[in-house]
Amino acid sequence: MKKNNLFFFSLILFLLSFINHSFSEIIILSKCDHKEDKYLKNEYIFNLNELIMTRNYVYAEKTYQKYRITDLSVKKSNSYVRNIYEEDGKIFTLKHGYPQFYTQILIEKNKPEIFIKSVMNDIEGISKISTCKKIEKFANQS
Question: 80 with 54: CB under 8 angstroms?
Fold first, then answer.
């Protein structure tokens, strides 16, 4: 009887050891150009474990002045975080906007392009907004 209890206890500890070790995947797209604007730095960090995207960017002076004319709250460098989810090998940010009109950033894994998906009254459009020169993938184990 004691052997069975010891075996059962050992099996539970073994299974719990897998649960405590979590794996995370991080994808960094950097040196990204843009169709309309110029940046000194433009990068996207997708943390698939925490389900967040962080975008860090620094405007080139001309682009910064273009946006600063109409909006005094514009900063030369900025960063923002969005929640993400994965569907069919694509990574989407959560919908930003109203139910009738919203936008999402999307990427496909292992591809350097960044797209924006716009939906207005159930009509969908997808446009490429950026191509990145560098893709890095990290698999962390904790």
Answer: yes
Question: Distance between CA 62 and CA 121 in Å, rounded?
Answer: 35
pTM, full prediction:
0.77
Enter the DSSP assignment of 94.
Answer: P
75-131: pLDDT as tens digits: 999 999 999 999 998 999 999 998 889 999 999 988 999 999 999 998 999 999 999
Structure tokens belonging to residue 63: 């682009």
The Cα-based distances of 104 to 27, 84, 95, 96, 128 in angstroms read: 18, 9, 5, 6, 12
Cα→Cα distances 133→34, 44, 75, 79, Å: 12, 12, 25, 20
